[in-house]
Amino acid sequence: MDLRNNKVTVGELLDHPGARGVLQRRFPMLMKHPPVGAARSITLEQLLSAAQAYVPQKKIDETLGDLRRA
């Protein structure tokens, strides 16, 4: 999937079956969290900025690689 330099929105990721599968596999609890739908308009870049405080960089890098291949 083209992540457009991380400018793709969370909504676009959730609407893409392959990308959604990557997110469900890597972050299953997050995908069940009710506010996920409210995050549809933020960009992947914004999400990564917030996630870096909670998620190890290695997991972020692996997830981005999987998303690019989705």
What's the quick description here?
By secondary structure, the chain is mostly helical.
Structure description:
The protein is mostly helical and 70 residues long. 59% of the residues lie in helices and 0% in strands. Helix 2 runs antiparallel to helix 5 (57-69). It is globular.
**What is the rounded Rg?**
11 Å
Low-confidence stretches: none
Mean pLDDT over all positions: 94
Beta-strand content: under 5%
Q: Major β-sheet, in short?
A: none
The residue fraction in helices comes out at 55-70%
Count the E strands.
0
- Could you state the order of secondary-structure elements as H and E? HHHHH
What structural category do the secondary elements indicate? mainly alpha
Shape: globular
- Please tally the helical runs, counting DSSP H or I stretches of 4 or more residues: 5
End-to-end distance, in Å?
5 Å
How would the blueprint of this fold be written?
Elements: H1 10-15, H2 17-26, H3 28-31, H4 44-51, H5 57-69
Helix pairs in contact: 2-5
Task: Describe this protein with a few key phrases.
single chain; 70 residues; mainly alpha; 5 helices; 59% helix
